[in-house]
Amino acid sequence: MSTATAIQNTATNTLTDFLPLGGTDYVEFYVGNAKQAAHYYKSAFGFQSVAYAGPETGVTDKVSYVIRQNKLTFVLTTALRTGNEIADHVYRHGDGVKVLALKVEDAADAWAQTTKRGAKSYMQPETFKDEHGEIVLSGIHTYGDTVHIFVERKNYKGLFMPGFVEWKSKFNPASTGLQYVDHCVGNVGWNQMNPWVKFYEDVMGFRNILSFDDKDISTEYSALMSKVMSNGNGYVKFPINEPAEGKKKSQVEEYLEFYNGEGVQHVALATNNIIETVTELQSRGVEFLKVPASYYEDVLDRVGQIDEDLKPLSELGILIDRDDEGYLLQIFSKPLQDRPTLFFEFIQRKGAKSFGKGNFKALFEALEREQEARGNL
Fold it and tell me: Does 266 share its domain with 192?
């Protein structure tokens, strides 16, 4: 297999795309305590309160808090009782991503197009109305317990969607500069990457735009393989990882063990100034993976000239990589919960369309140091 090779002419004509997507509408997390999680993401990440649903709004079995920063919307949901999908999800996985919601013009058609191509239905098209208009939702299953919800909101003018009320708060921390979801990475089991690649190709019309094998993403001890799936217009990208044979347990294996199955490994959040964003995140207590100082000794020899001063990048631990179209700056948080599962990437693209292949070895070694400290390597 030709590794790290861009597949030519991958962007499908959006006029003929059977599943045109407008990007990520929201990411919903099932968590053990949504009230506290919402406060964390507000205080640490700079999100603002948007909307709420719970017993006070007629929802008897769960609560959901909606928070937003620029074009980035998170929904944090907790079950109020046991013996239901939300409670079971948290018991099995800990806090994690349940829904990757995608913007569509026609949610009924999106459901019809994907289910007739083999997707398992999660939610048949349903219309929700209030005084602000109507929203149509539908959904399909994907890897593990993760689902895609198709959101049609062209006829809705409210804050989020029917069933939610405005959530006002006197605690409104400043933004950290996060803009939108750049991509979401899924971890799947042994020999499951290619079947899920085929799922996204056949069911959703995505294309495999980049491939990495265990020679690209490996260290002395562990390895993984990854393929990057993109929709026709490039607004939605889903890299899919699977473990590869190594001397010790890889980060993907550790994730699968502690998450008890397949799921979203990390969400990459875009920023227009990564130095300012990471400086602010660190000051608010967000912890990041660190690479050795030696990484920066020859990084400019590898990536060439960049606009930024290397000193603050090295002090913050921000990684640099370049492709044919430009360069990117990226950094990865430590897991955001006690289980070594979900984490976040923060990325600033200066023309680059790739995913930091040149940083894989340094990143993996940083992850392995964390795994070793946990006794899981």
Answer: yes
